Amino acid sequence: MSSARKLPAFLIGHGDADAQIPIEQSQLLYSALQKECADVTLHSLHGEGHFFPFTGGLSESYPARRVQTSKGCGKTGTSTGPALSLDTIGSFIRAHLR
Question: Which one, of 34, 29, 56, 32, lies nearest residue 45 by Cα?
Answer without folding.
Answer: 56
